[in-house]
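A.,

Following up on our hallway conversation. Structure tokens first:
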């Protein structure tokens, strides 16, 4: 019995962290260095590998709410392309809002459709607005970065994906214990894939602007689904979602950042995320034994 439990734990670790990390590592190298394509495809590839391993019933076309993450990945790529290519701010932000809303609608509607279309659309619009707000902060950061020279090997361009990686890692145990092991594992897979992407991007200097938006769509979908699908309390969901804004706000206020300042921001993100995770665990901890 203990041997079976040990094997199950090892398999879960492989599916949640190791395989997504390795897949993201390989795709990031191939896309960013060899194909001269966008290296952010690495973390999307790693997440898709984790999704297919963790959610064994993954189907395309999607049948369940979790299946729609394959569509979210595609919407994330289209969103990033439109944000980079559309120059008119009003059109760019409108297109982003529509695409973000579509992603959340597809992820949440399979569960919320019994409450009527107004509820589904309200959730989708609210979540899309939050992602749009993050994107506007990111645009301000990028504008500042374009005006100021960065050190040859700077951490600063990677602060946003690092912040999302920390948020995903801190949210994973909360949601695994409090509501859904499946969603918690997917958060772990996203965090592992982002870690691989950040590592490769730092050493190969293949970071592009706006690359955290697809990750934010996935992270936002998972955190929102934890409330809608897995009954994580709304206040816990909001705290976890709010923690993703710590890094972009700090970067936007900080202007040009040295590597030392960037490290302090990362440490601050980690500390605050751990505190939020600890409080959230206390709020969702089940009364009965976990075993």
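Then the amino acids I'd put at each of the 291 positions:
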């Amino acid at each position: 019995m203990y041997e079976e439990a040990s094997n199950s734990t090892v398999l879960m670790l492989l599916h949640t962290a190791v395989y997504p990390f390795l897949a993201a590592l390989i795709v990031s190298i191939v896309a960013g260095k060899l194909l001269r394509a966008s290296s952010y495809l690495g973390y999307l590839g790693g997440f898709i590998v984790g999704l297919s391993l963790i959610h064994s019933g993954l189907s395309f076309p999607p049948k369940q709410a979790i299946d729609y993450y394959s569509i979210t990945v595609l919407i994330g790529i289209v969103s990033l392309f439109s944000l980079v290519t559309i120059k008119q701010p009003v059109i760019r932000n409108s297109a982003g809002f529509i695409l973000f809303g579509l992603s959340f609608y597809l992820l949440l509607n399979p569960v919320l459709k019994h409450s009527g279309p107004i509820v589904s659309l309200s959730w989708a619009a609210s979540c899309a607005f939050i992602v749009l707000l993050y994107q506007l902060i990111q645009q301000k950061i990028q504008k500042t970065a374009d005006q100021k020279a960065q050190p040859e090997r700077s951490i600063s361009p990677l602060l946003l994906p690092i912040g999302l990686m920390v948020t995903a890692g801190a949210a994973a145990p909360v949601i695994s214990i409090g509501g859904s092991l499946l969603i918690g594992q997917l958060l772990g897979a996203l965090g592992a894939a982002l870690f691989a992407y950040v590592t490769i991007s730092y050493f190969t200097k293949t970071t592009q602007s706006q690359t955290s938006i697809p990750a934010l769509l996935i992270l936002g979908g998972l955190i929102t689904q934890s409330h809608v699908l897995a009954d994580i309390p709304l206040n816990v969901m909001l705290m976890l979602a709010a923690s993703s804004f710590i890094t972009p706000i700090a970067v936007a206020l900080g202007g040009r950042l040295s590597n030392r300042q960037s490290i302090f921001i990362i440490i601050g993100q980690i500390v605050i995320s751990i505190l939020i995770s600890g409080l959230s665990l206390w709020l969702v901890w089940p009364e009965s034994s976990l075993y």
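The two ends are 14 Å apart (CA to CA). Curious whether your intuition agrees with the design.

B.
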